[in-house]
Amino acid sequence: MLRTSCRTELVVVPFLVAGIRLMDVLELLKSDHRLTVMFTVAPAPNGAVCHGAEEFVRANGGFLLPWQQAVQCEFDLILAASETAVEQLHGKVMLLPHGAGVVASRSSARSAGPGAQPSHGLDRGTLVYRGRLVPAALPLTHQDELVLLRETCPEAVPVAVVAGDICFDRLLASVSWRAHYRRALGVGADRKLVVVTSTWQPESLLGSHPDLLDRMVHELPPGEFQVAAVLHPNVWGVHGVWQVKAWLAACLRAGLVLLPPQEGWRAALIAADLVVGDHGSVTSYGAALGAPVMLASSPPEGYLRPGSLADAVSRRAIRLRPDRAVPPQVRGAAAHRRRTHRARIADMISSRPGRAAGILRRTMYQLLGLSEPARRLPVAPVPLPDPIGANGGGPALLEAE
Q: What global pTM score does this model have?
């Protein structure tokens, strides 16, 4: 080992979306020779198979520690964006959200079964294991989440910190690069970009309307519209890259732009003239950026928690009617930009806009027992998109202004 006095940090990646979210946080620790970072893939709950986590770690050059070894070691800091299996690890856990907001928009977890009681992610059952509070730090995105935490798990309040949303901060820092992202996606000033996004449950856009992307690319005039698809990382993780590309093969031949799960979706949202989505986080981020939002699927009654982020987006969004022609609906929806809607959703996503990087870095160094570096933390714009099937060797980075 090059240095023996380093603090050790473990990054827990039970599934792809958690690993993707944590990469923004890991940027805050770069250039510090006092730290050494390792990764591990936690076992999925209920025996579920979610491929791609190990490949994600290796593609990012991370040192992958086998789970059986990770549970036997002591770490100075454990970074997790899911509560999956972290109670088995030894060290101070910082538990972050892996989507927009800590509080889930679903009223209950699917894995809990049809008779499950409402759950939102800040309840005692999530944060406490056998009487022990699992997280040593619990970053929240909004002040309202702290109010809820006081009611549902008061013993976690001392470790909670309202940090905001680092993903949303990067989106906001990237808005001025909209023209660059549009060029990278092949969209000129004379065309509109329609971003179609789907989460991964059966109630999702593609779960409800598997033919919608095919209709979009074949019904919308290519000289007027470019269609891009953003699928939840769990779609890729559960079914695999080959299967996703096989399902969308005809759409890709017809001109669909498909964004890989790791990156590109944020650039596409900034470049979008219209977001067609469902109750997933990407739809909410699009609404918070000011894009017109059209919902193509509606979960059953009682599926969404009243007052949640997805519920707020749903109440204000335009509805797509699958039984009607697509082009006139898309043209009408793309003409609307609701600024008050944007402000309302943005306020729900973060009550610390632009401050997440500083708050999260300070919290991590407090857990590590180290002095925080003096260097400033510029919020970098997101990379240029590198759509699947496009030429090029990966996403290019943009320099922060």
A: 0.90
